[in-house]
Amino acid sequence: MSDTDDIQLGDSASVLSHGSRSSRASSRHSNTELLRITEEQKRAELTARSAAINEAHELEISRRTLEMENQRLMQQIEMSRLELQRRANQLRLQTEINVSSARLEVLDKFDGESPQQLNDVNDLPPIIDGPFTEAEAENAPNDSPQHRARKLEHGTLNTFRDTQNDGDNFPKTPPPMSTPPTGMSDSSDAVLPPQTSDVPRNDVASAITALADVLTHREEKLPKKEPEIFKGSVFDFPVWMNSFSVLVEQRYTSPIDRLYYLGRYTSGEARECIKGLLALNSENAYQKAKKLLTERYGNKMLAASTYREKISKWPTVKQDDGKGLRNLSDFLFQCETAMSTLSQLKVLDDPAEHKKIIEKLPRQVQGRWLRFVDQCMYGQKDAEEGDYPPFAELCKFIAKEARIACSPFHQKPMDEKRELTKFVKPTKSGTSTTFASKADELTTKKKTSPLKGNTPPSPNANKASTCPLCKSQHQLDSCSSFAAMSLSERHDLIKKSGLCFGCLKWGHRSRECRHKKQCAVCGRSHPTLLHDFSKSTPDVQTKDDTDDKEVVVVQSTTHRVQTLDVGENCSHTLIVPVVVHHIKEPSAKVIVYALLDEHSDSCFVSDWTLERLGIDGEAVQLSLSTILAKGTISSKKVHGLTVKGLSEDTEIQLPGAYSRESINANREQIPKLDTVKEWPHLKRVANLLPPYLSETEIGLLIGCNATRAIKPRDVVHGEEDAPYAVRTALGWGVIGMMRHDNGGNNVCRISNASKEQQGHFAFRTQVKEVSPLQVTKMFEMDFIGKDTEEMVSHDDRKFMQKMKDGIHRRDDGHFEMPLPLKTDVQLPNNKPVALKRLNKQKMKMLSNQKYRDDYKTFMENIIEKGYAEKVPDEELDLDNKAVWYIPHHGVYHPKKPNKIRVVFDCSAEYEGEVLNRHLLQGPDMTNNLVGVLCRFRKDHVAFTCDIEGMFHQVGVNVEDRSYLRFLWWPGGDMNQSPNEYRMTVHLFGATSSPACANFALKCAADAYEDSCGTAAADFIRKDFYVDDGLKSVPTSDEALKLIEDSRRLLNEPRMFRTLTCSQKAFPSSVL
Fold first, then answer.
1. What's this model's pTM, rounded to 2 decimal places?
2. Does residue 127 share a domain with residue 37?
3. Environment class of residue 894 by beta-carbon count within 10 Å: exposed (0-12), middle (13-18) or buried (19+)?
């Protein structure tokens, strides 16, 4: 057996155990070595990191040291600059002192010289006016006075320049502060170099004098001092007169010179005041002119009254309108300053005057003022009641509020912030008619708005749409105030506002503008209102141009786009833009269109124009007559209106003008450039027409009593039926038919057949004021009733024809007639407005139980009686532009607090449309009240009666009831959704209802006169005032019979109730 066979089992185990222990020991040794290496590595990293941190710290210390050194050097440089600047200023002052001393010495020397020596002075070189240059100094001889003077002045000026340079031009290392600049002594700041013995004294004086003249010449380059031009404002007169006294009277002693400058620095009304004295050469003419101006514009009573009047007319300042509040504060400061010289303004210390001013402030500011007043009067403890704050305290208070409102730290309120987040409302899209290649493919396409409904506006867009002149939301070229300015004033405003001369917008210059406007006059790239008519006014021939015919070639095509008024006539009349103002307020101007009507013997002005001018007139009664009608109206007479053409310089004062609510003229008849150019003989006049102003109102009618304004100056003729151009003192205009419906260049024509209508025109209008004698005569005619045949105006005839053609009787006996619409009306869907108004009524009903109950009872009553009905389901989605929803609200009569009347608001406006505007008012068929009352007292037995719900007794045709829809909850239950209802009768708030009801009443009298008697018919026709009847008869039997016959005639006992007013009582069966 081998040695390996001797190994036992135990030996094997022992060998394995020994190997395992050796392996574990080796493993522990390896782990220890690895840990030691790792720790040494970490220690090395930390050591390196510590060294880096120390090095970075040293670098930071070095950087901070360099920064501190740099700051020290900068401070030293700044101190050096300030020191040099101080010495430069002292140098200038010392130079002026030395110049003055040298002049005195020269004068003293010349006083002791002989005449021959004085003549030698004239041989001195001339004093050179203007700045000296190095080239001139070098070219002059070294020993000449010019050379020395120029060298002295050149060195002095260089010293000025060097001491006033910026810090960047200083040397990096400034000179020590103790070392004075070169050429300066330590003991003195004298700047002139010491005079050497080789420099003659006269030459030095001449050089110094030349330097002084240079300084004087530089002062003369400043703007010239002169007073501003006085235009006739009471507010500007004291300041202007003070400046005139200082700048003119103290400089010129001659009265003739003063008079010349007095006319030179006045204009407008002020110059007209003294115009007659300007041509005189007498010495007292100036005193008379000055006295005349002082009496007119310097009168203390007038000045005080003007200040107070302006305060009363000051517009109310809106909430958070900081600029408006600041403007008010500035004007009140003027008033406070004027109080020191105008004792008549002491009345502004009165609390009643304060109240007028406080009412102009926002509510929050009013509340703070009341607290301030309370603090002044009752805030002091242990003291008696204080005094009310004077006007000066009110001015300080408003100035403080204005300063806070205009502060850049002022936060906008939440309401204004919400306004910025509102979406832009899409504009109403226009329509255009497209004629395609086939005549039967006539389609209408809607233009889409560039702004979508869910896009919020940007701040720049708000700025771009704000007028810089009047701060309203429109472009500058649409502003009437801008158009009323002269051309030079428009240029100044554009420069001052930083606008582009090409498009009148912010953000760029004219040479960079890519969207320049095109002039409608000359066709060049500039706005029409910047066109200079004085440079582009060609000579216009006013002879007949029928021989100068031009051949117009029209190229036909099958694809054309035309507007919706194709085939309609287009006419122009003499309507021109004018600038109007009042002679007492020349600064308040407004531009309006004026209709020049030679068939009217008076001038008229709209209420809108008077409101913009801020003037009022004398109340008068006018007898206004046309060729077909005559009537008396209330008006106001205004004197002193002055007009001038938009491109003219001549001002014309109009005679007394009468106010009207509006001037009824068609804007389509205003002459326009594009239509005038279509006529060859008018092309030369087209460029002379004023631009069309779409935002300008027609505010004047000038009649033949203003002959100077409407007199034709030039006329451009054409063919027999062609339009012609007329030039008046107010500008050019065009009269005649510009387009006819038989034009030959239309690809497609649309024929429209309608019933022939007869029109009536007033060829002459006469106006006269009503005298007391005429009033007396009017009362004498009060017993005569109205004659319906007199109502013959065009609209009245149209109303009567509609009523006669459409009236009929229903099955229940009531009359029914159409709604008298002017034309075929297309209205927008105003249901959202009606729903909003209904929700407001809901809130009021929830807070007032009585109002809710009365309202509900009234509405249920009119539905139950058939005055209103629910809209049929098949007509709910009707979309033919013939639907209008009428909002409604409840009112109580002061004498009937328990009876509510629900008023249907037919004057509600939505998107510019109002139902009442589309209704014919009809003739006034109401009997004269004075005549009814006088006849009521004629006989012994009198009685009165009325028609219950007179308007509700007259029905509306079914086809017109959709115009009278309204919203209401079913059964008055506000928890349900509102349903749509419509009125079946004429409404109380409609313009046409009174005439419709009176027409139906008189139709009933005419229809049943034979069966019920002439007395009853005459009673209803002549003795009713609206729905109240008043009658007197000789006996009570006649009264009873008349009442019974009238009841039978009206055929409805419930709607006719009699009330006894006579001395004898009627039987109860009659009541």
1. 0.35
2. yes
3. exposed
